[in-house]
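Objective 1b of the project was to move from sequence-level analysis to a structural picture of ligand recognition. The entry below was assembled by the postdoctoral researcher (A.K.) and checked by the PI before modelling. It contains the amino acid sequence of the target and the SMILES of the bound compound, bicarbonate ion.
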Amino acid sequence: NLPKTFRTFSSTPLKCDAFSPLDTFPQRHNGSSDAEIKAMLDTIGVKDMEELVNKTIPANIRSTQALALEGGLTESELLKRLGDIASKNKVYKSYIGMGYTNTIVPSVILRNILESPGWYTQYTPYQPEISQGRLESLLNFQTMVTDLTSMDIANASLLDEGTAAAEAMLISFSAGKQKRHTFFVDEKCHPQTIACLQTRAEGFGINVIIGDVLKYEFENKHPNDLAGVLVQYPATDGSINDYSDLSTKIHSLGGQVVCATDLMALSLLTPPGEWGADIALGNSQRFGVPLGYGGPHAAFFACKDQHKRRMPGRLVGVSRDANGNKAYRLSLQTREQHIRREKATSNICTAQALLANMSAMYAIYHGPEGIIAIAKRIHTLTNALAEEIKQMGYSIKNDAFFDTLNVHIENGADDIIRKAAAANINFRKVDNNTVGITLDEAVIKQDVLEIIQIFSKDSYKNSDLQPANKAAIPQKFIRTSPFMQHQVFNSHHSETEMLRYIYYLQSRDLSLVHSMIPLGSCTMKLNATTEMIPITWPEFANMHPFVPDNQAEGYKILINELEKDLAIITGFDGISLQPNSGAQGEYTGLRVIGAYHKSRGDDKRNVCLIPVSAHGTNPASAAMAGMEVVPVKCENNGDLDMKDLEEKATKYKDSLAAFMVTYPSTFGVFENGVVKACEIIHQNGGQVYMDGANLNAQIGLCTPADIGMDVCHLNLHKTFCIPHGGGGPGVGPIGVKSHLVPFLPGHPVVKTGGDKCIGPVAAAPFGSPDILPISWAYIKMMGGKGLTAATHLALLNANYMAIRLSNHYKILFTNQNGMCAHEFIIDIRPFQKTAGIEAIDIAKRLQDYGFHSPTMSWPVPNTLMIEPTESESKAELDRFCDAMISIREEISSIENGQQPIDNNVLTNSPHTIETLISTTWDKAYSREQAAFPMKILTTHKFWPSVGRLDDAFGDRNLICSCPPIEDYLE
Amino acid sequence: NLPKTFRTFSSTPLKCDAFSPLDTFPQRHNGSSDAEIKAMLDTIGVKDMEELVNKTIPANIRSTQALALEGGLTESELLKRLGDIASKNKVYKSYIGMGYTNTIVPSVILRNILESPGWYTQYTPYQPEISQGRLESLLNFQTMVTDLTSMDIANASLLDEGTAAAEAMLISFSAGKQKRHTFFVDEKCHPQTIACLQTRAEGFGINVIIGDVLKYEFENKHPNDLAGVLVQYPATDGSINDYSDLSTKIHSLGGQVVCATDLMALSLLTPPGEWGADIALGNSQRFGVPLGYGGPHAAFFACKDQHKRRMPGRLVGVSRDANGNKAYRLSLQTREQHIRREKATSNICTAQALLANMSAMYAIYHGPEGIIAIAKRIHTLTNALAEEIKQMGYSIKNDAFFDTLNVHIENGADDIIRKAAAANINFRKVDNNTVGITLDEAVIKQDVLEIIQIFSKDSYKNSDLQPANKAAIPQKFIRTSPFMQHQVFNSHHSETEMLRYIYYLQSRDLSLVHSMIPLGSCTMKLNATTEMIPITWPEFANMHPFVPDNQAEGYKILINELEKDLAIITGFDGISLQPNSGAQGEYTGLRVIGAYHKSRGDDKRNVCLIPVSAHGTNPASAAMAGMEVVPVKCENNGDLDMKDLEEKATKYKDSLAAFMVTYPSTFGVFENGVVKACEIIHQNGGQVYMDGANLNAQIGLCTPADIGMDVCHLNLHKTFCIPHGGGGPGVGPIGVKSHLVPFLPGHPVVKTGGDKCIGPVAAAPFGSPDILPISWAYIKMMGGKGLTAATHLALLNANYMAIRLSNHYKILFTNQNGMCAHEFIIDIRPFQKTAGIEAIDIAKRLQDYGFHSPTMSWPVPNTLMIEPTESESKAELDRFCDAMISIREEISSIENGQQPIDNNVLTNSPHTIETLISTTWDKAYSREQAAFPMKILTTHKFWPSVGRLDDAFGDRNLICSCPPIEDYLE
Ligand SMILES: Cc1ncc(COP(=O)(O)O)c(C=O)c1O
Ligand SMILES: Cc1ncc(COP(=O)(O)O)c(C=O)c1O
Ligand SMILES: O=C([O-])O
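Corresponding predicted holo structure:
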């Protein structure tokens, strides 16, 4: 009478090879047991996975071979292997600067944000009622940026300084009534910034001029066509220049002044907003975010009020909830690509939320005085170093500086660089005669003495370092205005207070630690701990992006292996890991296609066909790549309208550059026509771009290359387990067929890309290398079999839920066999008439059930798109289905008049504790019905911290920095 | 018009040396800023810290010199220095066994329990309503243990296997009506277990006989005096022996059968409960807890129902709350030392909760099938290894085995050990002819091949390993009964499910991440992240306790430095880090005193004077050390009754062994008489033992040695930042004056202690080394100045709160200047008459305010003892005071009749969400008053997850393992 599940030693044979290790990963990543899988297959009515796949994926694209990846490593093997790789990175002391410096990451922030699944598994805060914690944190980030830059408004991060500069150029370009086509870039900007900007300028036909901004005769040369100028403050050579007269001049010519800057320096320097800049941007990395060989870090972006509706990226604002309480939300979403599509200000979607949070926390932990003290010390050390270097007979090219010296050494740069390398030190080689040295908060006196040793000509006496007599920042640059005066920056300076603030915010945010986040198109799967552990190892975390190759051998192995594995998985011939998000991948892929056409003399090809169902980033990216977007219709059943496609392709046969398509489609279906569609495009001279957001439905079962795609981006933050971090980081590599490989993006500092490469699309050569171990580890631990099993489960889970819900909701799109892919859409439109209920009401009511809503009203208005992923267990799927079915019953109670149409448990949702326990209660439903519609909620419930947000109020009364503290206490 | 707090670069001079690093730690550890300190001094009415100290600490004990420790390291320096030390540990592959093996710690458990402040900063769950998460987890631990051992009941951990065996011996000793004085220990038990048991036996006059348990003639030799026997199953030599006939025989003689065992082996072997054992115990380390050079790990302890009231340690049980809902709590507390004092079953207080939680989570993650698979694989590898070794011509001494082989090599053990060391491998040297090899779940095939290589005589061919034909576990030992059938062990096998379960439990537990935990005598201060990070570094975590010294050089440096620093801090001449808790420190110190007396021929000295105000562990420890406890009275003002002390000391002049005293006193006062008291004791031939629980009030200001103490224990888990972990781990080192140094405890395997050492008091030579980096780091980062500043603040914070609360509550004890030390007691007794309110009602009501109660009814019944520690900010102290004052007003509303005496906001507290939103509400106060008595609670509130516990019900209906799942769903 032993229970079935119990197997004793003597009675059961071993399943696997008797000696094989047991800490295998697929069993942990994939959510359901064999028995549960069997039960789900039964519910769907298929006999096995094979039948499920056959009914789901068109026969003409199904792979005939198993995925050619090795078997998976166990979790222990993975950590050992990755440890070996990490040890091949040599972490020298890097004083290279160029926008990247060492930083001391406060341990309390490292452990409780970057290493905490409560923070890193959050989604972008589109459901504000269950995201108040990170919204507050991002508002802190914005406040810190507006304060330090002295600008009116700041967003909640961009991808990096290079692309932020490109975005600023585009604002300048579109700011006036008439487009102005010249953009001037000071030669003293970081080279990677200039290069990113040049790449981006091409798509828009902007003429970028590089020169000495203080000498250039703008009035004569561009009386009417100057969009703006970009300056770096302090400049890449360390100098601090006065741009106030310049600003006056540029403004008088109708141009914008854009300033790339450094938050640390701004604690001491007159901020750009005080000398006339219209836009300020930069990298917030040195505020407590590891170097990570180039990323991820959060770029900041701030501007004058008049540009706020043109400002790219996510913007957190203060609004109020249904009860009139203050509440945070994403503001002005009408600017974003998901609304404005090809007319959007930018294609940015995923940004760098997690890193922005880290930087904001760093500012909070130190407070204004702490930041000033750090900046002063950096300057004091730099200044003392400058004195010593001068005493040794060298000249420092820049008299005024904050943290960076350009040392003149006639024909001696290489020599010094070599001596430094021998002492495990990196300087910047500016040119043959110039060495750059940038100090940072991690530098100690001994480090400076070591630097001096390298420059010393005779045997150096380790004399004590002396502070210089006076600061090397001329008085006119000295900041006099306060910043970060809000209480949040002046309260949490002890570790205990900091820890509690972090946990307080976290307690207001729903994440994957609570329940499934079934967001269609977002693939919120497990971000496994073993994948996450290595990213904070010092060998990965503390490496400057521009170190010589031989110091980054570990990274090189990792990058090469990841590229190879992704090539196998997608069937492509080349991969670029440079793009920092899916949208950047799209942009990159389209630029590569453009370069390909051009290389063949085919330079009229600029039409991009995009189905109307496409994600907003697709048309936005196409526009940014300089293409004309031509929409392609869809059939009522969701399929591509093949007739329309063929007509358009033929019509634009001479100008057809590309067709962008998401596969399986954004409707969650493996369409049959896809191979045909690729053929049509190819026949008409176009290239096919696949948006790989839905790749999770394909791996091991079919490949984009075999289907006929020429390029595809992957979202490593969806399919390959990089966590969403509350809205970033992301990695959006592209894969391409062999004819496109030569065009993969290059980089001005570290060689990347093909021999006919387009310019860089990100500031760092390999984008965000510090998080690549995550995807690498996922692939290595899953192996070919594990990955294929994950895809099976992703399809199974979606179809299982679709079946369960189909008795209660209409499932919008399926294929001819009634199957969806890895996600599906349920129709909410009918309830508008019957009960006055819309998708948003169900989304909010789901919060009362402890769930994050599925994707709301995209790609079809007033629907919900559900994607379970393979990592969710059958139990969790059932719990979600039960909640949806219970909500359907609640809708019925409106339909049948038990609850009024305008004051019911759905329209009033979500219900906060505060509302539920208020003495007055005048609803047609009980408090208990509101709070605990399912029994399990009495013990397992995540509570929304505010009531439903008033979106209109927030956009009408835009407040995008921390409101005065009295407001909280009112 | 710049705000005062804002200092610009030009206007302020640098405060510190311009080059000094800024990531200094004291500013992060200590909670208040200079301005806040000033405000608190003002409130108290003293002009500076010096005056505060002068008014608080008697002049005759104040140190005249600054603490002679170096200045503090910054956080970055600390991590670097500790990294260097760690790198001196050489982590070989250790197959030494003896109760410690390698294990694969699941990453999800490592990161989210051991590395999570949400878990490690919890206190012991004495406030069950805000501790349901860890109570559930500990119940899982108990269930896992009872299931695997097949015993009736298990506790929620003991300190280690050695002391657990000693506890079992004591149960055997006290089980019968008449004491039986013989305890037999099988020679095949682990040597450190035997030694711990011998140490403990001495205090009780138990006669320990070591021999071959299967051959010994019990009937003839001990027909009436056999308390019990201890066997090891499997034995230390790896053999598996049949003890069923033995059990029958021992039972017939009236003795108890105690079995030290291995949970992993028990998944395959007939459990002790099925062949007759009365008690089963062991180390749960191999269930996912790092080796850590010996600890901390959780020992398990299970017994038959008849012993349950004698069982030592904490026991979680299922009861119900005020609303009749199921709720967990600590059961049968009447067994514990804080109630029974010298008559307690044991002195254990702090145990190993955090590690027990890890082991339980490991069992949950793997489930019964997973555990069996792991055990099978270990056995299969061991078996294959045995075959190879036999084929090479060696003999294996034990035919039957699970994971351990004893290989016979005539005169060749040293040679093999040497060869192994050369290959970075450790075996156990059993004797000159015998080598022990124990395999574990981390072993892979390649490891076994390497082991074979060492034994191979000729050049070895790396042939493939073959599984043996049959198991080396004879059929009669094969387990047939199921275990861990409860749903909790069969649900959370995917990482996502595991993660959510961990977070679900965590969400029910208040910890330092939420608010201050002002528990008098417990010193709940910051457990800083930088202190915690190193403990999971592999160089510290993965080291076996019995490796040769030259592999543990990093640990040796750490241990030596920590001992030296603690000696400086306390003024003592020698330190032993072996005791695993404060109570163990007490026991050790008293044993050392006893050995000292004996060494001088003074062997009648066995009286221990203990003030009536002492902590329960004091008399319990004295009793365990074989001493007779004589209580000393206290005056009404809380001071020692010096007259009584002198009388008793004189009366027992010839038998006086020791006086135990807590200083500052358990009443929170620096008594003036302490120097005098020490003199009196010394004059009468006694030694003075200081309970160092309150050392946080002394560091840098006075030292136990100067005061006149001979011995003192420190609680590293109080004063030196080791987190409480929800009830352990702890470290309770003792410091002693030079005359006692020779008696510090030794160890049978690794040399420790003095040349006249007492036996070991813990299984591992250095207790729990893996957590020593925490205290080491704290001292190194604080430096002498920082530590002294912390003490200042601890005194300041307590006196500030006492002043604020003194207008509302009576403060019980202060010194002649009206000052308390680092904690103080408020009197609740008056409210019993005026409002029917007792300390417990305030404790529970504080939960509604988001706070953990202060220490309740100890050392004075119906009082609350408040200890803020230095890490709390003034803001937090004020928030707590505000809550207490608000509660006082609520009491007034009962006193003045606004609320009834038996149904008011205090007696009904804590209020759960479920209660508050129930439709019916018939209280004299509103729902809002219950939930949000202060405005800040509407945004910042921790909710109790159950209503007030029904303690009596739980003890009457004792259930100490997971209740059937239907109960939850009823
Ligand atoms: C179909 C599709 N394409 C593109 C993107 C943009 O990717 P990213 O947010 O990484 O820029 C998304 C993001 O959700 C998407 O769902
Ligand atoms: C005064 C006093 N002595 C001894 C102890 C026992 O210490 P431990 O719990 O570490 O065994 C405590 C614990 O709270 C205590 O407060
Ligand atoms: O981020 C989204 O576009 O859903």
